[in-house]
Amino acid sequence: MQDFAHAAARPCAAGTAFGPVAELADAHDRARRIGRATPLRQPVQLRPHTMEDTFVELAVADAPPIDTWLRTMARQLEPGPDLITTLDAYYRSDMNRRRAAATLNVHPRTLDYRLNRVLRLTGIDPASTRGVRILSTLVARRLAGAWE
């Protein structure tokens, strides 16, 4: 997969699905949908994503009112210092502030400022259970290019 991304000279994502040979077309369709729901990252992840990795994003993609609601919320995060990237780093770091700040190459207080800005703009605390459910799905949909 890394060789393909390198040849394409752009971030990419891939999905995989399993099924009986008689249902190969359905498995192919699921794998394509999983790949489309997966955030595009650089460097490329070493393995394709599965249904277990993207089940929330797949469900949201099939629920236009929810997807529209998330997209509207994503627009609220546009003013400010790259809040989507900040949330992505925070969640990929298992909400470890120091590791997320190091990933972003910012001071931990700068990370705190950005997370507080997310709270002020959306009314959702990124560190709460509710915040993780909503904002991590929003980030994944945005980084997958769902709204472009």
TrEMBL record:
Superkingdom of the organism of origin: Bacteria
Pfam families assigned: HTH_30
Limits of the PucR C-terminal helix-turn-helix domain: 83-130
InterPro entries tied to this protein: CdaR-like_regulators, PucR_C-HTH_dom, PucR_C-HTH_sf
PANTHER family, sorted: CARBOHYDRATE DIACID REGULATOR, PUCR FAMILY TRANSCRIPTIONAL REGULATOR
Protein name (Swiss-Prot/TrEMBL): Sugar diacid utilization regulator
Species, as recorded: Streptomyces pseudovenezuelae
Upper lineage: Bacteria, Bacillati, Actinomycetota, Actinomycetes, Kitasatosporales
